[in-house]
Amino acid sequence: MPSKSMTKALIAVRAAVRMKILLRRLGETQEDATPLLRDAPKMLSERIAVAKISLRPASSAAQSIDVSTPRSQVSVNWMYNDLFAIHALLTASALNLLLLVIPLALASGILGWGALPTFWLNLLSLIPLALVLGDVTEDLALRFGNIIGGLLNATFGNIVEVILSVAALEKGLYVVVASSLVGSVLSNLLLVLGCCFFFGGLYYKVQTFNATSNRACSSLLFLAAIGVAIPTAAKNILMGDSSVDSEQTILWISRGTAIILFACYLCYLYFQLQTHADLFDGEHDDEEVEEEPMLTTTAATLLLASISVLVAIHSEYLTGSIEEVSADTGMSQAFIGMIVLPIAGNACEHMAAIVVATKNKMELSLGIAIGSSLQISLCVLPFVVLVGWATGHAMTLALDLFIVVALVLSVIHANFITADATSHWLMGVALIAVYLLIALAYFFQ
Length: 445
Fold this sequence. Notes:
mainly alpha, 1% strand, globular
């Protein structure tokens, strides 16, 4: 059993970690923060330092760890730190109450409760798992430099979409794969960005953001749209040519395009993290205090692996019920993929982007909305095509014509609205309206 002083120190660590998570999520600015929040980074550092000292076995007046201190005792102390940090991560948001749904979701898949309960329970389970996965990934990335940390965030930032897409790919649900990934792009680019502009505009008459980084991201988004449009156009041209094996030709065009898009994403990462990192640092970096990781590397890695396994299990049950849910409810697979899955899968990012927009931190808000769109269109979508190539699944970038038209027009619309690097609430209305038009068309397909 831990001593009384150790218990107090552990409580201090838990409180400090919770404060750290809140500060990280809220992103308060210097102007609108209360005196407590303005002093919180300094208080937090002192509190964690004192707590960690208190956790060590007191072998001298300075309470430092003597060389004779058993390693097992030190390991136990760090284990307590990790347990309280994990507890803080799991209780940091009201959305994490949905973690209670996980046992029911697993039971629905194992016991066969029916397609509809299995679909919705497993869909709800993915929401808190995505939130915790993002927090753990960010915490682990703090232990490495900008390049490796950025790669970690890029790899695991959309791991839910990757696992869900691969699970659907294995079942041959190519329509669901394509529509869910394009739907995620449209959800971030229209719905999330529109809500950021709208709710931010309710607090501030006009908001501004970095024009240079916005133009760079806009050009890459248009590149991604072209990367989908060309294989689709080739499909419509070649289908009527009997002298060409159109399916194989389209397949190779898609795979070549996927490699080019993925290479462009790696260039974007190098641009963002190395050569032009100052453009993506945000608006208030001079006021921010350097963050420290809350979990040990071992704990963060194990937690990341455990959550990824859970996401894979829920994705398996979810995708296995889509065909039956579509037949029972009348919702098309395209509507489920384009609208339902992206909104649920990106719910945490949606909320985070809107909250920081109301704090007038538009760089961070656009980084979440447009950054996620770039990750999915330049990284996840090509990656799924390449996974299909490796596993013998004929996944192509030649999508349904309506999906491609919606994507290209949405990118043009978003680029036009953000061209002058300013925003207000009416721009948000315009973006949300386009998303609702697309959702309406898909609902009646």
